[in-house]
């Protein structure tokens, strides 16, 4: 069990990088899977995953976004009893798969503090602790790494994770992430517990893999994935047949300008296809204006005769 704690703005990018890397296919595991568990009371804060960042990372590594996302199982708990109950689902998911590569748990002890039940806090704490122990045992039995995050609580010298006494007992590795200080180029990770190294700290940054030798550019793969999703999920939901036909004509314009879409690096794929659609609408509008001007000119000449 690996435990990371610190500000959420540091935890979320780390989890998205771990998730994207865990989904990379290999010869032995062409379809690896991952489980993402989110624990948090939605009455206290928004609970979500940064899917935009995840899809960008998948695209950067040349993975098929649609295919990769289908291999992520997301479990959500908004109360301590829900967190205790989802361990059975986690066990079912892992037991039914031979290719689960990673289990991520965001906010593993949050509900011990944020559960809406104000009475019987002892029972709330027991539910959370039992669920954490169960998740660790499930992952250990399946030989799947369990990576969890926790909030930090104020300390005299080094902030500690919430429920530090309990989590320190379970986690084999504990790392504190701290935002970069003034004058520093990178954030800093403090290794506080590890079986292979003494406590130490290092500045860190993320490297984006350059997948050389690829015959298909990543944005082209992403474009094809997005087009497939739009056809199956968006086009089929359009009520009017004329709008479906208009969508088909838009896809023709997108495909015809795929070179321009691939060339631009400063905009997202969705922004690029929307921009291409606007350019196509402008082209049609100007062509119709030109034809209308020609027709009006002919009518005016006929009237003069």
Q: How many separate domains make up the residues?
A: 2
Query: DSSP strand (E) fraction?
Result: 15-25%
* Alpha plus pi helix count: 11
| Largest pleated sheet | 8 strands, mixed
Number of strands: 10
Question: Helical percent range?
Answer: 40-55%
Distance between the termini: 90 Å
Shape: elongated
CATH architectural type of the largest domain: 3-Layer(aba) Sandwich
- Biggest sheet, strands in spatial order? 3-2-4-5-1-8-9-10
Could you state the CATH homologous superfamily of the largest domain?
P-loop containing nucleotide triphosphate hydrolases
Topology (elements, then pairings):
Elements: E1 2-6, H1 8-22, E2 33-39, H2 51-60, H3 65-69, E3 72-77, H4 80-95, E4 100-106, H5 111-114, H6 121-142, E5 146-150, E6 152-153, E7 160-161, H7 164-170, E8 173-178, E9 187-193, E10 200-204, H8 218-234, H9 241-256, H10 258-263, H11 269-304
Parallel strand pairs: 1-5, 1-8, 2-3, 2-4, 4-5
Antiparallel strand pairs: 6-7, 8-9, 9-10
Helix pairs in contact: 1-2, 4-6
Describe the structure using short key phrases.
11 helices; eight-stranded mixed β-sheet; 305 residues; 10 strands; Rossmann fold; elongated; alpha/beta
Summarize the structure in words:
- The protein has 305 residues and is of the alpha/beta class.
- It has two domains: 2-204, Rossmann fold, CATH 3.40.50; 218-304, no CATH class.
- It contains eleven helices and ten strands.
- An eight-stranded mixed β-sheet has the order 3-2-4-5-1-8-9-10, sandwiched between helices. A two-stranded antiparallel ribbon has the order 6-7.
